[in-house]
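Work Package 3 (structural annotation) set out to generate three-dimensional models for the target panel prioritized at the project kickoff. During this period the team completed the workflow that converts sequence records into discrete structure tokens, so that structures can be stored uniformly alongside our sequence database. As a representative example, we reproduce one entry of 136 residues exactly as it appears in the project archive.
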Amino acid sequence: MGLIINKSTSGQSMDLSVPNLTVVSSTDDSAAATFTFMILNPATYTLPAQQAGGLLIGANATLINPLVGETRFNTQRPTFDFNLSNIPIANTTINASAVVRHGNQVATLNFVFTIQASGTSGGTPAAASRVSSVPM
């Protein structure tokens, strides 16, 4: 899932490769479900100063691209992914968060999953959204 754009708005480049960019943790408020957040495709480059990199897909791109004026550089990486497993068979809302670190800066990404009971093997996510983030 492409959902993050990294911007090097200072006069310095940003090394976006692991271990400089890492997922510190992922948590949720469900007793049954488990939310995990990970780097799916790590970056293999240093983002030049005053440029933006990172993959956006679908509606994410439509909403964010007009707001990012920086020149794009290698926009395929890094990409992040998440998984929500052991989804309960119940109409419920699951709040989750992931903490991402770049160097000594930390960003918290908050998510809300709306689950609708269906079938016998678990609920089906009816909606998901990133509700807020704390910038690096």
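The helical segments are 59-64.
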